[in-house]
Amino acid sequence: MTAPPPASGPQRIVLLGATGSIGENALRVIEAYPDHLQLVGIAARSNADQLAQIAQRHPTIRNVTLFDQAAASRARSEGLFPNGVEVHKGLEGLTALATLAEADVVLCAVVGVTGLEPSLAAIEAGKDLALASKEILVMAGKFVMAAAREKGITLRPVDSEHNAVYQCLGDNPTKDISRIVLTASGGAFRDRSLEQLAEVTPAEALQHPNWSMGPKITVDSATMANKGLELIEARWLFDLQPEQCQAVLHRGSLAHCIVEFTDGAMLTHLCPPSMTFPIQHALMHPLRLPPVEPSLDLRQPFSLDFEPLDQQRFPLLGLAIESLRTGGTAPAAYNAANEVAVEAFLNERIPFLQIPRIVEQTLEQMDHRDPTDLSAVISHDAEARRLAQHLL
Ligand code: NDP
Ligand code: MG
Fold first, then answer.
1. C-beta separation of 376 from 369 below 8 A
2. What pLDDT, on a 0 to 100 scale, did the predictor assign at position 3?
């Protein structure tokens, strides 16, 4: 792959969640275009060895963070990282990376809401933010988008459906959008009956038909919570009303969204189900260079079938839509309870169908207000986690 180096030099990137599924795909893109993209900082939770291997390959990295304190101490005492690399730890460490003076772009791909504070700090520091961690906008979209607007920063969506919408929208103003429709593959259990869903195991839930992703989001795909979270994410990213954000089943994961404009025109975005495509767009935009893996082969037949989604078998979708309509702190409670329940399911503490019940009961038992500040959302999130734990 060849492309002339940019006159302004490479974009300098901090990658939070470098050892995960998004992290791995981001590395493929970054390593394919060293003249355009350069890593200056990487972070993970505890996987020190893999993080050290990435640092060995990228001598431009001078700062790394291991969120887990014990992992950071071991990395320091065993000298895992090359000389001159500073090893940070904890949330302060993630924030230090997100605000590194030499960084241009922060790609946040940490699972869950841990990336919220570092992402806000990155915006405050004037960095561009490429956002994969959808939970952040679900929990605190109002505050993240307000901060980005105030700083004049464009959020670059990494989630494939949102990146697709972003590309379809182009320069069209929000007032011309009638609705956006996100496509859902349907996850591992799209063809299972309710009776069958009662028996499914974590190992089965982790077998996604189309995408290779981390465990939390793969379970979220199997419950459809992922699409629910994405509808809430879309509401904030594109400044839409809840009823303008919809979802449809599309088994092939080749079309990632449909954007319908007020004159009835519908645009879609096609690419293979691999995150390298949206990541490359998010990191390179507006520059378009060859993809790091083959695009769709139009010599092979393929179909674009769309079907309505079944909310009966997948109540987490309806609950997400309900929390989106309720607004305020409801989506934060939805997300927090879902995280607790998914972890319990993965640890075989609860059956699959208990996940939506925990979320539903958590939502029912809490008061949802319009949060006046971020701390109100953070305490609502904590309260929902406590309640969901109690309900397990
Ligand atoms: P993975 O589980 O594969 O990876 C998670 C990454 O986050 C790992 O690098 C992990 O480090 C790191 N991490 C977890 N907790 C912390 C923490 N407290 N501090 C620092 N780093 C932490 O997840 P994915 O890559 O699948 O997903 C990441 C995010 O991107 C999620 O929000 C997901 O919803 C979103 N997303 C993912 C897609 C995908 O295709 N995978 C598609 C669209 C969105 P360690 O290895 O040490 O545990
Ligand atoms: Mg997605």
1. yes
2. 59
Range of 192's domain?
172-270+312-391
Same domain, 345 and 220: yes
Q: Which residues of 346-362 are buried (b: 16+ CB within 10 A; e: fewer)?
A: beeebebbbbbebbbeb
Distance in Å, CA 12 to ligand 2 centroid? 25
Strand order in the sheet with 255-261: 245-249, 177-184, 255-261, 266-270
Same domain, 129 and 198: no
Q: Do 59 and 203 fall into the same domain? A: no
Considering every ligand atom, which ligand is closest to the CA of 210? 1
Evaluate if residue 237 carries a pLDDT over 50: yes
At residue 154, the pLDDT reads 84
Residue of minimum CA distance from atom 17 in ligand 1: 45
Q: What is the number of domains present in the chain?
A: 2
Cis bond before residue 301 (omega within 30° of 0): no
Instruction: Tell whether 88 is covered by a domain.
Output: yes
191: its two tokens? 């063809």
d(CA 235, CA 100): 30
Ligand in closest contact with the CA of 133 = 1
| Digit-coded pLDDT (tens) for 200-209 | 999 999 998 8
Q: How far is 64 from 89, CA to CA, in rounded Å?
A: 8
Residue 291 contacts residue 277 (beta carbons within 8 Å): yes
Beta carbons of 219 and 342 less than 8 angstroms apart: yes
The C-alpha angle with vertex 357 and arms to 354 and 361, in degrees rounded to 5, equals 140
Distance CA 67, CA 357 (A): 31
Are 316 and 339 contacting, i.e. CB atoms less than 8 angstroms apart? Answer: no
pTM assigned to the model: 0.96
Query: Contact 243/333 with Cβ under 8 angstroms?
Result: no
